[in-house]
Amino acid sequence: MNIFITLDYELFFADFSGSVENSIIRPTNALTSIADHFMIKLNFFVDAGYLVRLKHYKDRYPQLQKDYDLITDQIRTLSQNGHDIQLHIHPHWEDTDYDGTQWQMDTSRYRIHAFSKEETMDIVTRYKEALTELVGDRVFAYRAGGWCIQPFTHLKEALKANKIWLDSTLYEGGYKKNSTHYFDFHNLPKKTFWRFESDPLIEVKNGYFAEVPISSTTVSPLFYIRYALLRKFAKDAHRIMGDGKGVGREGKDNLEMLTKFTPAVASIDGYRISYLQRTLNEYIKYSDKENFVAMGHPKAQTPYSLNGLHKFFADNHTKHHFTTYFEVFHE
Ligand SMILES: [Zn+2]
After folding, report:
1. How far is the CA of 327 from the centre of ligand 1 (A)?
2. For the domain that residue 300 is a member of, what is the CATH number?
3. Mean pLDDT in consecutive groups of 10 residues from the start of the chain, 331 residues
4. How far is the CA of 145 from the centre of ligand 1 (A)?
5. Among 62, 99, 117, 214, which residue carries the largest CB count within 10 Å?
6. The pLDDT value given to residue 247
7. How far is CA 102 from CA 27, 98, 157, in A?
8. How much distance in Å is there from the Cα of 85 to the middle of ligand 1?
9. CB distance 292 to 13 below 8 Å
10. Cβ(320)–Cβ(3) below 8 Å
């Protein structure tokens, strides 16, 4: 089985974005040093809108020049060391300004669908260019910000025009509909790779695009109760490295998670890594055994999750092929 460890490389998007050092640079270095130990390469979906915005403001604000240098140095180094750099888009950066002290996030256009067809084309083109500038012509895969990839209509044209043909956003059973998010991933093809054309959920043989979905399982209410308690009481091991605040979970999502089994992505974040091995075992038993994709965020790493990742690598690196989208799929 190919195993892809994928990280959404980004700040936080609520009132506090967090610092680039604590929310991106340090946890990424912690992750790669564990991966290096096993000679494993990681996949980074880089929030390119952040780069574009930093570039826009860096000549005006010395702090942002510093942040820009830190982040672009790290992305170049990751790529030079064989880690994969691919495209992640949070289009609300288009509406985000810097006030001299911090980012003023406006997430009213959180989904790319709030932008017109022309604007979508422009955003995808500029954001991909920002990555290509740093790592060369190696960017061909995409993950939608906050899983919001539907409807695919305008994205289809924009991604195609930019030769981005692989998507790794979907996960079986995923569903969210609230003031910022919308996605509905029920009834995906029962595969770990398929081709598609106009709708990522519908397989089309010889379609231009390919989907490599994020692996998933179902998680019990007890998991979320434990998770909440650990975050509240068990201080150090479960404290996240990032120093910002997230966006997007609302009361009704919590209620559902606390009352029934709900679909959840294979994840290396925080306490979620506790069900990663179980999820892999399920894929070994029941899937086509081609690809297993786990996701995570540098900002959400904890001492507990980093230990867990070390163990996951130690237990699996001789049995499976830890790899990158570039290595397996680049044509
Ligand atoms: Zn993201």
Report:
1. 23
2. 3.20.20.510
3. 98 89 98 98 98 98 98 98 98 96 93 97 98 98 97 98 98 94 96 98 98 97 91 85 78 82 97 98 95 98 97 98 97 81
4. 4
5. 214
6. 66
7. 21, 6, 34
8. 14
9. no
10. yes
Distance 47 CA to ligand 1 centre (A): 7
Residue 10 CA to ligand 1 center (angstroms) comes to 6
Residue-level pLDDT at 44: 98
d(CA 148, ligand 1 centre) in Å: 10
Q: What is the pLDDT of residue 220?
A: 96
Look up the domain containing 307 and give its range. 2-329
Q: What is residue 233's predicted lDDT score, i.e. its pLDDT? A: 83
Contact (Cβ atoms closer than 8 angstroms) between residue 117 and residue 154: yes
Rounded to the nearest whole angstrom, what is the distance from the C-alpha of residue 318 to the centroid of ligand 1?
31
| Phi, psi (rounded to 5 degrees) for 257 | -60, -30
C-alpha dihedral sign at 230, 236, 240, 245: positive
Q: How far is the CA of 195 from the centre of ligand 1 (A)?
A: 24
The pTM of the full predicted model, rounded to 2 decimals, is 0.97
How many domains does the chain divide into? 1
Kind of pairing between the strands at 216-219 and 141-144: unpaired
319 Cα–ligand 1 center, Å: 30
For residue 29, report the distance from its CA to the centre of ligand 1, in Å.
Answer: 19
pLDDT at 9: 98
Pairwise CA distance, residues 3 & 84, whole Å: 13
Alpha helices (H) in the chain, listed in sequence order: 20, 26-37, 48-57, 62-80, 117-135, 153-161, 221-233, 251-257, 276-286, 303-316, 325-329
pLDDT at 248: 59
310 C-alpha to ligand 1 centroid (Å) = 24
- Give the per-residue pLDDT at 331: 81
| 93 Cα: distance to centroid of ligand 1 (angstroms) | 12
Q: How far apart are CA 60 and CA 130, in angstroms?
A: 19
Rounded CA separation 78/74 (Å): 6
